[in-house]
Amino acid sequence: MITTFHRQLIVLTALSLPTLWLSGCSSQPDIPVHEVEYQRYLDENTQAVQRQQQQALDTAEQALKQSEAQRLSFFSPGYAQQLEQAVSASRQASLTGEHQTLINKANEASNLLELALANKKQVEKLFENVLQRLAQVRELQADKVQRRQYQQFLQNLQTHFLALEAQQSPTETELNALLIQLEQLQRSTLLARYWQPAHSTLEQAASEGAAAAAAQTYQRASALVDDTGSYIQLQQGDPQEAARKGLEALRHAQQALFVSREAKRLQNLNPSQAEQAVLRFEQLLHQISQGLDGKDRRHMSLQDQMLSIKQRLDELQRQTTPSAAVPPAPAASSTPSNNAGEQSAP
């Protein structure tokens, strides 16, 4: 027989079961202390590895920047190339997470930088005269004017730098050979810059018959062109003097070309065309005369008009600079000249 007490006990038990079940589901077991410490260790170790990798990559990149700043690809081409390869491998290892490879390649880049700098120091000492001469030739723009010859010399020079990396110092004979090559490079550069333009212009004048149509002008230009070429070829002289001679030769060659053209044009004129040519030239002189002092000088021969204008210019120059002793120009004559050459207009 179920008593009242039993009924109350059953009710209390039924009411307490859901509470016990809910409290059991909401509680979690505690994580052991040693597991927490291990996780903290893993996090800290991962951060340390990441910092170490970044430092290694920064070291490699800095080595490459210093190599470029010191122009080690020129002074130490072998070491510089290996350094670039080591940095490239470091970058790849950083992307793929190869920790030890990254560290090794970064250290390799640093070591190669030291070797390359040491080789550069040796190059600057042993090849001092060659490098100084090379700088002079570069100032003449040999790298632009004689690009192929210049690049060939650099390649030859760098074979000696590579040999020095292998502990093979240059001999006196090899150094002298390099200096001779630089002399040839300078000579060809000067010829290309200062002689070739005048020579080409003179050849153009010759092809148009300047030797016959303007013989005196052509011969003078030809002599100056030859003199410029001889100066550069034989004297190996001052580049500034070569430039002066070259410009003078070019101007005379241009003069020979254009005088020849004008002379042939005048020779082919009929009387009416010749008259118009003279009048056009006289009109130019008249415009100059009007601007100079307002005088009309067209009653004079062309040569006398030019002499009168020159005389007036000399007077104005003396008035501007009283202390300058300028010899007077020949007096202009109003008498027509009998020289046919003086009557023709260019």
TrEMBL record:
Lineage: superkingdom: Bacteria
UniProt KW keywords: Coiled coil
Coiled-coil boundaries: 106-140
Record's keyword annotation contains Coiled coil: yes
Residue ranges of the region described as Disordered: 316-346
PROSITE patterns: PROKAR_LIPOPROTEIN
Name under which the protein is recorded: Uncharacterized protein
